[in-house]
Amino acid sequence: MNLANEKAANRMQIGLNRPYHRVAAALRMKVGTVHSIVFRRTRPRRGTPPTPPAQPVLDSFTVGAIRRHIHTKFAAKQVFTLASLTGNLKEARIIPESTSKISLWRLLHKMGFQYKTAQRKMYVGK
């Protein structure tokens, strides 16, 4: 197939609904070769999976500071969610900025704090 021949004949030799055949004819390849090239370019590449982010390392001083921060909120009779607690601890620079809400939830669970869910929010309790 030559695009000049198509123009001269004023009609398509291979229809637009067969793109692999059109590309193969234009590049003078086999249709199977075009299929394999497209397959190799579009399939997900195997390789080493990305390394997961490192868990934040919190020493005993940081854990104690978190516990004191929570107990001062309990003493003030404040109700707080996991998200607001994470924000407050990051503002106070007790935990690093990269600490996620889930990491803090795991830490609070290990520390023995309980929580309840209401209106799709987690409220921390004793």
From TrEMBL:
This is Uncharacterized protein. The lineage of its organism: Eukaryota, Metazoa, Ecdysozoa, Arthropoda, Crustacea. It comes from the Eukaryota. It comes from Petrolisthes cinctipes (Flat porcelain crab).
